[in-house]
Specification:
- By secondary structure, the protein is of the alpha/beta class.
- About 60% of the residues lie in helices and about 10% in strands.
- It has a five-stranded parallel beta sheet, sandwiched between helices.
- Helix 5 packs antiparallel against helix 7, helix 6 crosses helix 7 and helix 9 packs across helix 10.
- The protein is globular, with a radius of gyration of 22 Å.
- The termini are far apart.
Length: about 260
């Protein structure tokens, strides 16, 4: 996945103008309009990431949810759905034909080779959809795109593709209490689920920005607003430029000329 994302980024990068690196030859205003960077967002179970994402969406931010895409690419009649059935059988299906995520999860949890097989089926499809959505937001002129990836810090190669990484954090006692309250779990069960993930304290060391959701919601919301302002003002990572916009404009011009030719 990481190699494909790097290749996509390189294809978008436009050549330097007049031999000078880092310019598209379209003027400063055009250069600002055609730049975009990626922001990786993650958290932990019961840390409050979903609530933070909701605020970002309210602010009009472009958010790509990796979990949603992962569910979409395995819907019935999809390529990944058919391949999963070939390798895992129809026993993992629900009555409506969708994949029973819990049944499939129990298989891959205890069999690493099965997990690798599943990843080899789903990851290319997830990647393609993510790239399509990134490209859409690029063409629409978004300043940055947030990639909501639950295992962002576990798969550290992906963090290298992000200009910034954001962790939604809360202290361990708060995390435990929220999980127990939300899921109705006992202490032992809740602790087991938390310990199955990379600790938030460790993720915190990897993140470039931390939203501390340990306190009241107003404090968290203020941090999200401050982060959004900071990202909107960022001008130091201009990795995606005018290549796609130029291609679209050129195609539009060609179509216009053909229409004029045939109606004249």
């Amino acid at each position: 996945m990481r190699a494909a994302l790097i290749g996509w980024e390189r294809r978008l990068r436009c050549p330097p103008a007049n031999g000078s690196a880092g310019h598209c030859g379209v003027g400063e205003a055009g250069r600002r309009l055609c730049t975009m960077f990626l922001v990786g967002l993650s958290g932990g179970i019961a840390s409050g990431k979903s609530a933070v994402v909701a605020v970002l969406r309210e602010l009009g931010c472009a958010v790509i949810d990796a979990d949603v895409i992962a569910r979409q690419v395995v819907q019935p009649h999809s390529k990944a759905h058919q391949q999963i059935l070939q390798h895992f059988g129809t026993e993992i299906l629900l009555e409506n034909g969708e994949i029973n995520r819990e049944a499939l999860g129990s298989i891959i949890f205890s069999q690493p080779e099965k997990r690798r097989l599943l990843n080899s089926i789903t990851h290319p499809e997830i990647l393609k959809e993510m790239l399509k959505q990134i490209l859409k937001y690029f063409v629409l002129g978004y300043r940055y795109v947030i990639l909501d990836i639950p295992l962002l810090f576990e798969t550290r190669g992906l963090t290298r593709l992000m200009k910034y990484t954001v962790l939604v954090y809360c202290d361990p006692p708060t995390q435990l209490a929220r999980l127990m309250r939300r899921s109705g779990l006992g202490v032992a069960e809740a602790e087991a689920r938390i310990s199955s993930q990379l600790p938030l304290e460790e993720k915190r060391r990897w993140a470039t920005h931390v939203i501390d959701n340990s306190g009241d919601w107003e404090s968290t919301r203020r941090q999200v607003l401050q982060l959004h302002t900071r990202l909107e003002d960022s001008l130091d990572f201009l990795w995606a430029r005018l290549a796609v916009g130029t291609a679209v404009a050129g195609l539009g011009g060609l179509v216009f000329l053909l229409i004029r030719h045939f109606i004249s």
